[in-house]
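Schema walkthrough. Field components (list of strings):
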Amino acid sequence: MHAQDMDALHLALVETLGEDCVSVDTSVADAHAGDWSDAPRMRPRMTLLPRTPEDVARALRVLAQHRQAVVVQGGLTGLAGGATPQAGEVALSLARVNAIESFDRIGGTLTVQAGLPLEQLQTFVEEEGWFFPLDLGARGTCQIGGNAATNAGGNRVIRFGTMRDLILGLEVALPDGTVLSMMNRVTKNTTGVDLKQLFIGSEGTLGVITRLVLKLEPMPSAANTALCAVASFDDAARLLKSLRARLASLSSFELMWQDFMSAAMDIAHLKAPFGDAYPVYVLVETLGEADDDRLALERSLEQMLEEGIVQDVIIAQTIEHAKQLWAYREAVGELLSKLKPHAAFDIGIPMERMERFVEAVRTSLAARFPQQTHLFFGHLGDGNLHVLSGPYAAASDLLEVEERVYATVKEAQGCISAEHGIGVIKAPFLHYSRSEPEIELMRKLKTLLDPTGILNAGRVTK
Amino acid sequence: MHAQDMDALHLALVETLGEDCVSVDTSVADAHAGDWSDAPRMRPRMTLLPRTPEDVARALRVLAQHRQAVVVQGGLTGLAGGATPQAGEVALSLARVNAIESFDRIGGTLTVQAGLPLEQLQTFVEEEGWFFPLDLGARGTCQIGGNAATNAGGNRVIRFGTMRDLILGLEVALPDGTVLSMMNRVTKNTTGVDLKQLFIGSEGTLGVITRLVLKLEPMPSAANTALCAVASFDDAARLLKSLRARLASLSSFELMWQDFMSAAMDIAHLKAPFGDAYPVYVLVETLGEADDDRLALERSLEQMLEEGIVQDVIIAQTIEHAKQLWAYREAVGELLSKLKPHAAFDIGIPMERMERFVEAVRTSLAARFPQQTHLFFGHLGDGNLHVLSGPYAAASDLLEVEERVYATVKEAQGCISAEHGIGVIKAPFLHYSRSEPEIELMRKLKTLLDPTGILNAGRVTK
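Field assembly_structure (string):
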């Protein structure tokens, strides 16, 4: 873009949003290398910080009129490079569009603007006896609009679903400046195409989420946590089915294979939880009422021990004790750092294929990259497997690992991203999970909603 | 259409599907009156009964080439006239596309064809220790594909969600003959636009659902049922919040106002459940484990009695006793018959507006139509209110009732259909629930996916 055009755009944006909502970085070069995973975070040529949902729509209209590419930014905690500016892009930040607008304290629904950080939202409703079940490590920084745009998951999906399941209504600004209001407030609404679904999980490629109506749960009074030692994946699957049948309050079921457990103990200096080592460990948590739920968990796990489905079990006696049990699972943060540069997978595998898949990938990676570490763990309750493999000095090795894993995912009829999204990093691999007619239809929808193609271009579909 | 064109179409369909899959009704007249609610069921000029999902797609391509309007038919149990043939339409029935294709017994996912009746599906998985939680009165006849196309609800939405929440994957035949395969098998899949959502609840206007991957629950071992007498709607809302916090196994929360309760007792010759009459009654059910769950329900309701949130309570001691408690709620079938011709509403109202809404509608209808009966009840757990009002001899009175109720729904920011859908009957009222930009986008999606406009024309959006 020529300097003159940029001036005209700048002027129009300042006129629309006000001077203090537009900042220009004159040092930003147009061209930039394309390796997103390792590149230093790119700076946009201009950053827009509108103050209201309506101003987001106005800014988009101006950008579309000038055919100016724009990247939408929430809390910048994504793992797929979707919010990283590409060469020549303007950034549109939702950081100031962050008000809590209304709260139905009787039914438990909350209306908020997209830029509200997740943790602020959680705290706000908890003070009123309600609970927003979405939770993830980036809670302090990630924004609720970004959670919606990427259909965030986390540890409690097995009970409460993903972000998609927690959204009743949305308002979206389209690139032509239309405000598409779909601010439904009821759980059941069957009045034609559920348009909001188009924007959940499509990573800002079809419109910018500006407002949300969220479904809350009553605040549970207690969490109960247990760590189970299990003899095989098969037994873990049996344990999952039994606990789901007996404990409606089951909210987490985190599986860790032995190799992950050892690596976690090493790096975080944790003691072995049991006298013996076991092939598989499962971290179980329920959320609900203190006494009845605890009793039900204890009785269920006792029976699983008697039936031989579980080999050993520790039930946390205090909140501090529960944290110690979660520490094995949460050592993943330190493992990610240690194994850099790594390949970190966030894949979904049908349960009946899971064990074979893990075996196939473990064998294949160990044979080809015997010097590297390959770890397996995940939110088994919802078929979400994480694989962490590294370190890889050569980018070509990393690419080979990705190709190997994704090809095996396709064979297993799984998906290449369960909760992190596609962004820029996984866009080249999308065809491993989505059929050609699907990708074709996604492109048609993109053209329908963003005819000038200014919005998050190059994300998801290339 | 001229006889000659019809012959060419008939020939092409016979060639595509085989003679035994195409039946022609030569007695059907082209023109027909447009009053769907009272009209005798119209007969289509031709009925197609393909045997495979692939043949559905082939039939659609032929129909589009001939620009022949087609109505998609499942079990014909819908309440919004969506599957009733309009003048000149060909019917495409899914009745023979009804195979159970595969079953992941470890993870609990089932792959079926769209024409499978709901009850057959339920029975099949229950024999294997799994449970498909969707349930509705028409279970014996309705088909799973129709349940998806209308996003069916029922009594257990509060815990398990609507049909949308139970669908992992879909295959859809588009009017151009494309088979759009979106047969995802995992709970979490964040790989771009979740295209299947377009087809769930859009009542067959965008494509024909041919295959589904469904999410199952482990079979609960027991249901526990209670009937609660409550002093006010406010207390019922408080009861709902407390029970949701304490009982994750809560699967039904059915509210009946006093006037409904009296009418139900009258028509079904049922005894009053309590010594006194109360303003509001709530039928509560949990699904889960027998002993622990029952104990938790008893303890929770005891505490609600102590706190004065509940005035009186009956907990069912046997399955027979539970049926007796449900009989009040299920008298609705007989009430529907008695009050014919009636206006039967299936609306969603935000909880904080519910009490005011019921009062406003009750007062307005009683003042204008003092001779008629007006009853209020619903799946309160999910904001779904049913209003039954009748009998009305004059069609203009019926229309007036509809206009009054829907205008009040709009004021309350509710929706005009929570679970029955829009079909033909409610299409004129769609604007009470959806904004102009939404309806405009629905029309654009219709043109994108069905450019010749042959599929379920006139349904949902006019």
